[in-house]
Write a structure and sequence with these properties.
Structural class: mainly alpha
Helix content: 55-70%
Oligomer: single chain
Radius of gyration: 17 Å
Distance between the termini: 49 Å
Length: 192
């Protein structure tokens, strides 16, 4: 019996290994604190089912920008973290949704960028890196999700649409591994 049915590691240890492996696969370099942040994001969202508010993230983002101080940072971080989690870990759930993955990518980039400009020190660097490499980190979370057997990329058309909308290198590599060469001359304006 090769693998045990129950693992003896904590969720943080499990996700740390998964995040590190995915980052190596995708040749994505990141600061240690940023990797730590991703692991904590996964451990916070996954077990509790990622509490959901009925309010759209765009509305929450706009309201957060009107807030001040700690409340503004807290709200922006919640919007950014949810955007990263949804665009990476739950991107397949956006199929037939009113908004697509590119909405979450842009929202997350802006929210993390805003946080980076408001903070100083180590967290500012983490938020700046998350904003600058948002799509790449979403790809890391997508790989973690697949390896955890929680999503499937069997819908090749959906994968191609994701590649067109985000330019995700990982989505392009997955398409190529399935014998489909992504065509960069086709733009997202052809998608409806």
């Amino acid at each position: 019996m090769g693998d045990a049915l129950l693992r003896r590691e904590s969720p943080a240890e499990y996700f740390r290994e998964m995040v590190e492996t995915a980052m190596q696969h995708q040749r994505l370099a990141a600061h240690d604190l940023t990797s730590f942040y991703l692991v904590n994001l996964l451990t916070a969202f996954v077990p509790v089912g990622a509490e959901e508010r009925d309010e759209p993230l765009g509305v929450r983002f706009a309201r957060a920008l009107q807030e001040g101080g700690r409340r503004r940072r807290r709200e922006l971080r919640q919007v950014a973290d949810r955007s990263l989690f949804v665009s990476g870990f739950l991107s397949d759930s956006l199929n037939r949704s009113l908004v697509d993955v590119d909405y979450y990518v842009q929202l997350g980039e802006y929210a993390y960028g805003s946080l980076a400009r408001q903070d100083d020190g180590a967290w500012a660097e983490v938020f700046d890196e998350l904003a600058a490499k948002f799509a790449a980190f979403a790809d890391v979370l997508g790989e973690v999700s697949e390896r955890a057997s929680l999503t499937s990329n069997s819908d090749v058309l959906r994968l191609y649409e994701k590649w067109l909308r985000t330019g995700s290198r990982r989505s392009g590599d997955l398409l190529a591994s399935r014998g489909i060469v992504p065509n960069a001359s086709v733009s997202s304006r052809f998608l409806q």
